[in-house]
Amino acid sequence: MNSQTVLPLILEEISHSYISGEETLTILKGLNLSLKAGEIVGLVAPSGTGKSTLLHIAGLLETPDKGRVVVNGQPITALSDKEKTRIRLKSIGFVYQFHHLLGEFTAVENVMLPMMIAGVDQSTARKRAEELLSGFGLAKRVNHLPGKLSGGEKQRVAIARALANRPQILLADEPTGNLDNQTAEVVFKEFLSAARDHGLAALIATHNAELTDQMDKVAIMENGQCSFR
């Protein structure tokens, strides 16, 4: 396959179920979705329809019952947990609704951590972390602990952390859902700009129609599958 045609992420015929008491709940039913490099796709789904499950499968945090996950041309499903962790650390950035920053570490240290886990030396990790945070307007906040940051600032740090290892794929689960509308709009525009600047393939779950209007296309989850508009 020509490297120019390799898609960063392919989800092919993905099915997944959960056991709830005596009942089997089928959440995903032969779902297909792919992301191109530089493409930002909004994910819209009512609560309980499998949005988070889909993102976790795309992020190699869960394994589907059936179907194929392919990251940068490499089939993932049959790999060991160790190999999945290596690929996830190298290729995938994840942003959650709640920032999940480590409270005992400063903003810059939170962004440095994934790089250092990946084997980057401390001085190189710090330099990149400071550059990322500066890009989000946080140059004067790099040495602040999360408890000293506003909600919008914390989420900016979380986005910078997701970008730290230069992933090809960015996944986000309601990344501005915990912010007030004005802050959410500002942070989201910065988020989109960062994704476009880095040429990332991004899948962003949000209920905010004004935000999805800014994306390249929208995937709508219904009955365990995706349709696009």
TrEMBL record:
The keyword Plastid does not apply. Keywords: ATP-binding, Cell inner membrane, Cell membrane, Hydrolase, Lipoprotein, Membrane, Nucleotide-binding, Transport. Its EC number is 3.6.3.-. Residues 9-229 form the ABC transporter domain. The keyword Heme does not apply. GO terms for biological process: lipoprotein localization to outer membrane; protein localization to outer membrane. It holds the Pfam family ABC_tran. One of its GO terms (cellular component) is membrane protein complex. It comes from the Bacteria. Belongs to the ABC transporter superfamily. Macrolide exporter (TC 3.A.1.122) family. This is Lipoprotein-releasing system ATP-binding protein LolD.
